[in-house]
Amino acid sequence: MNRNLEVINKLYKPYKITRKNKIYILNTMEGNFVVKENPKINYQKLYTYLKSRSFNYLPNISLDSRDDLVILDYQEDISINKEQKALDLINLVSLLHSKTAYFKSVTNDKYKEIYEKIKNNIVYTDNLYNGYFNEFINEEYIRPSHYLFLRNFTLINNANKYCLDKIDSWYQEIKDKNQERVCLVHNNLCLDHFIKNDDEYLISWDSYTFDSPVLDLYNFYLNEWMNISFIELFKEYNNNFELLPEEKLLLDILISIPFVIELDDNEYNNCQKVRELINYLNSSSKIVFND
Question: Which residue of 40, 111, 162, 202 has the fewest C-beta atoms within 10 A of its own C-beta?
Fold first, then answer.
């Protein structure tokens, strides 16, 4: 901030500068502003594109912004129920996707690469957890975390089997297609990146890209599955912007893959890790098999 401090003081004469994570908040007589140094993206280009698609849910960007310094209006978030906020966010994301969606040509190699990457991930987790099972089942004195794992191994094993079966089905369905639906995806959706007051704002766009809408839904789920229920959220999204069958299947597969836990000598932490994995798989199962 030091190299830009003179510019900021000259333009805004702030009476207070506060650091918050990777941004600075300026309190000035003219209002409050957010300053991001060395942004990873061209915010002006992004804003121009989104507004051309009639998506205006963005904090205003200052004309004083530069390539190495983006200045945005600061928006205060009001406190509302997490479930309500999540519903507002999913509605906004479905609008973003519908406004920016299009089909682009792809080669068979693109789908093959995605298939192999996902399947390798599933095979790795399958081998890892089968290895844990074979090790733990032969222990004379079973640790609490190992016992918890063994009691729930059927859940973990079934998730891996489901994913292995469905990823092959997905590839058979998609491999000969030469088009893919893409849209502008935020790529880091979470409740903290949605601001609600008199208006609604989606913030923190540094990771945005053009890709499948599944990417946003999957990342949102990974970030917030412990905090909110996603069954109705995904239904709401689908009512607004319906996923294609192959997109829906891919999302089901991705959220069903057991994440990797590494166990160590801290038994308390191990129990927490296993319990979190079990809770995650139960949460995902309710979504996938709710139809």
Answer: 40
Report residue 30: phi and psi, to 5°: -95, -5
What would you measure as the largest C-alpha separation in the chain, in angstroms? 72
Per-residue model confidence as pLDDT tens digits over 126-151: 999 999 999 999 999 999 999 999 99
CATH number of 99-288: 3.90.1200
Q: Please, what is the Cα angle at 23 between 20 and 28, to 5 degrees?
A: 85
Res. 14: pLDDT tops 90: no
| Annotation: CATH topology of 2-74 | Phosphorylase Kinase; domain 1 (3.30.200)
Distance CA 227, CA 190 (A): 10
Q: What is d(CA 237, CA 240) in angstroms, rounded to the nearest whole number?
A: 5
Listed by start position, the domains of the chain span: 2-74, 99-288
DSSP H stretches of helix in the chain = 2-12, 43-52, 82-100, 108-136, 144-151, 153-174, 214-224, 231-240, 245-256, 267-288
Q: What is the pTM of this model?
A: 0.93
